[in-house]
Amino acid sequence: MNLMIYLLAYLIGSIPFGLLLAQFFAKINIQNEGSKSIGATNVLRVVKKENPKLAKKLAVATLLLDFAKAFVPIILAQFLGFDDNMLWSIGVFCVLGHCFSAYLSLEGGKGVATAAGVMAALLPLELLIGFVAWFIVAKVFKISSLASLVALVFFLASSFILHYDMSINTHAPVLIICFIIVYKHIPNIKRMFKKEECKVI
To answer: What stretches in the chain show pLDDT beneath 50?
Structure first.
């Protein structure tokens, strides 16, 4: 039973909404352009070249759908009475699916929006702190990847401060999700050190 739930969470997380939206509405394969990521930032970056108004709409839709594909399954599982261990496991598998999609030969996005869906359901206050950090850095530097990584640091630090005694008695799921996000941002980190990272916000 648990394995089926984990597989379902992974397959839901694997749905490449950004790729599907860009292909259907803009006739663009975002895996061939920009950072080649399937997330909202690359949707905005790539589609913006042809249609700025459509790019913003598709980026917002991608962001919301990537958020929802983790948030909704966790809330549903919570409603059905699953314990916190199962909820966190569902969250981890949703993020894994987004970052290493079963439908895209294990390619995928950066995991930020999907991870935010997990944390909105399970650590909302820490997510809010991370979002404030993201907003400030994004406004000042206008670099999405930098804002995401700084937000991750603030989120992680606040999770240890506010929930040091996690209901499952371990920060392992949080650390796994954060590690995945950092790993997927390695190309961005390299570009930032070379001062080659694009400003898209």
So the answer is: none
